Every structure is written in structure tokens, then in C-alpha cells.
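Annotators were shown the component list below and the corresponding predicted structure, then asked to write short factual statements about the assembly.
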Amino acid sequence: MTTLTTLAAEVRANRIVAGVRIPHPVSDPTVAPDKEIDVRIAVARRALDVLTLAVEGPTVFAVDLAKAR
Amino acid sequence: MAAARGRLERRVFDVSDVSFGPRIRLAGGLLELDRAAIADLVLLDDRLTRCEVQLVSPGDDARIVHICDTAEPQWRVGGGTFPGWTSPIRTVGDGVAHRLRGAGVTVCCELPWRKTGGIQTPRENIAEMRGPLAALNPLSHLRNIVLEVAVRDDLSDEECDRAVHVAELRVAEHVAREATRDHEPDSVEVFELGSADPTLPRVVYICQITSQGPYAATFYYGGYLDRLMPTIVHPNEILDGALVDGNIAGPWIRTPTIVHQNNPVITGLYRDHGRELYFAGMVLLRGHYYGMDDKYRVAQQASKLAGWLGADGAVLTWENAGNGIMECLYTLQECERLGIKTVFLTWEHGGALGDDTPLQFYVPEADAIVSTGSMDEPVVLPKVERAVGGDTVRLNPQLGGERHPAVGPIELSWRLELYGGAGHVGETRYGRVDV
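Structure shown to annotators:
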């Protein structure tokens, strides 16, 4: 889980979840605390979901944060 | 469109030598300065407690340290010099300006270290005046008027940041005005967009700056650009002092004000305007936002503005380091999707041996890249006879800071502390030298 996705691909991470903010890849401190937990859960769930997907080499997965924020 | 009508006439006064004398005057390329009067002018600002004026010339066995910024002495005949600093805020880039080509006013100050290790740490900024590394900084070919200043202890970081720039820009205006008023220039440069063969390819310059608060800022008409939405500017505004650099936190990868004033991408596009291309204007944006949403937002906006300027092609530059590259490359990607061909100027990492990853981020559309240098090789700065700006250098703020004699030798684990080295717009002739 990272925002610098091309670096992750370069070191051959197979499944790369695109993060939210540079210093907060799995969160967003600019939203209210009760919504922030939704952001965290959305990113973490996405990471768990893509673990179940077959990939051929480094693949970047986006997170849909529309509902979480 | 109205913005395209600005005509800037820069009257060029060449400076080939500088010395102290009884008053400010320029004759036959020799610039004379009244040392005490310049210090008095700086000390009109009660935020500053000390000002010593030094002169440093090319080839001197010297180095300059604690550099905050450098400006080219400039005076707008009709008013508005350094707007938001020494003049009221008004749009510049038109009318007549005088410049002292070959001279620079550099302000040096040991700024307080309150947030050591963070992004707003005022890092050591070092300029070598002789030896192979001299070619990498913008001061080594200038006659340098160096202001060694001290700030009051009770100032906030914001006030320190402002005070050092006010000193620099006041002197830059004063010297240019007093030396050139009522004098005939050595040459005249005219910068004007507009009428040229409309069948030539239209090229837009997309210039990304960084601005993240005190010591890591770019100022636009005197104000921080921290929350800038990408905007169209006239390139003449940049040549005429609208941008002032405060990126003291990133010496190697900053754009000193004198480089904005003479941005070679702008002057190069002007040179070819009407011959090989049609210079269609300029988009200014800020990079290094933390949120990915912000990065996508500014990339959409910057590329859209380039499209509105009718761009067939775009030159993209960025300054500073780290994730700031992402906004520039997302902008590039969006331009290509809009059918705008792009070329990207960037410095590289590459590691100490040059065999590591050069860019922290990339997009496949960036397939025409010009390298402006690398930062990662360690280097030893030799012993010199004279250090200007301070007696010591401060390194490794993340470890609490350590001091070394400014005359050297100084071991640097990389080249971050060397002032203006990467030259992201290509202002220095070299990007890398072996020492």
C-alpha cells in the first residue's frame, strides 16, 4: 500500500494498492475522525480483496473512496 | 487576449567588476558600492540586527555559506520593482526595467533551527566559487554582493523568512536604480508575445514550483503560493520579478530568484518564437501536495489551461524533490491525452554510483526527457582561504545538527547542500561534474 506506485512496481511488488496521501497512504487526517475510520477500512479491505486476485507481475489497484469520504 | 499584449523592455547594464567606493555608480562595467550605506539600508528593518556587506568574485578562493537567496539587481523605471516586497502589489511584465547583468545580491543568514529534520528546515546552502563544483551554481560567474545578516531572536519563522528577502530585494532595487538611473544601457532586450506565423507549432511552458510554508516557499507578488491552483501567467511577469524563491530547505533543487528572473526556458522559447515555434504562454502550478486527489486536481487544471492556450506542445519543468514529481508527470500525462506533445526537464537520483533508480515516479507518456543533473554522489569540498556568509556550516539537521568550519574541507554524503546545483530549468551549464 503506497502512493509511489511506480517505485513499488520497480521492486516487483505484485499487488500494489494506490494510497491516499503521501504521508498517510492508508488514511486521510483531513476528514472527520468517524469518517477517517471508513477510509482506513476501505483501503485495508481493498488490500485484502486483491490478495485473492491472480496477477501477472506488478499490478496497481485503485481504491474507491467515494463512499468512505 | 489581453495577457498577450505585455511588452517588457529590459535595458541591460553589464557588470564586469565590483568594488567598494564612496557612492553607488557604474562606469565602464565597474560597479562601485558604498558599503556603509548599503548596510544602513538593510538595517532600516528592525527585524535585522546585523548587516555586513562582502564582495565575492569569480575565481576567488572562497565559498559562500548560509545562503538564503540571490536576486539580480533590477529596477522598474515606472515603479513596481519586486511587487509585494519593495513596491505595492501590481502586475509587472510590461514597461521598462533596468537589470545589472553579471551581478547578484545574495543574502546570507544563519536562520534558527526550530523544526530540525522536517521539510521546513532551513538547510545549509553552499556555493563554491572555484574548482570544478563552481560551474554547478549560479553565483560562480557573478560579481556577488553578499549581505551577511542576523535576525532578531524573537521572530517567528515567517518573519525571518520575510526579513531576509526584504533585505535582499531592497538592496537589489536600490543598487540597480542608483547605478543606472539616467544612464544609457549596453544593450536592450524586448520580450513580447503575439504576432508570429500562426502555422508554427504553439508551445506552452508549464512551470511547476514548490511552496510549503516558511523556508520551503515560493512567493508570488510577495505572498506564499502554498495553495495555488494552476494559473496562466505571462512569462514576462516571471522575468520581471513576480516570483521570489524561498526554498532554503532544498538548496540543490531550488530555483534562486535570479534564475526565475532569467529563466532560460522562457528566454529560449522567446528566442525561437516566430522562427521555429509560436510561444503561446505559460502555466504556473505548485507541486508536492500530500493528497493524491490534489495531485490529480492540479494536473487536470494545468493541462486544461495549456489546452486553452492552444498548445500543440509543452515544456514541463519542476523544482524540489520527492513526490513533487508526481504533479508534473500527471500533468504531462494529461497533456499527451489531450494531444499536446511534451518534453520533461528533470534532475535525477541514480544513487552514489549512478546505477540506481533515477526517478521516484514516472509515466509511460514521458518519453522525451532532458536531464539537468544528479544529486546523489558524495563529494568533498576542498579547503578555501575565505568563507563568506558565516564561519561554520550546519549539516545533518535530522541528527540534531553538526557544525564544521566553513573554510573546509567539508564532506557531503550527497549534494543536497550545494546551492542551485540541479538547475531544473538548465540555468547552469552542467548537471554533474566529477571531482
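Statements collected:
1. The first strand of chain B starts at residue 7 and ends at 14.
2. The helical segments of chain B are 35-42, 157-180, 235-239, 257-261, 264-272, 292-308, 324-337.
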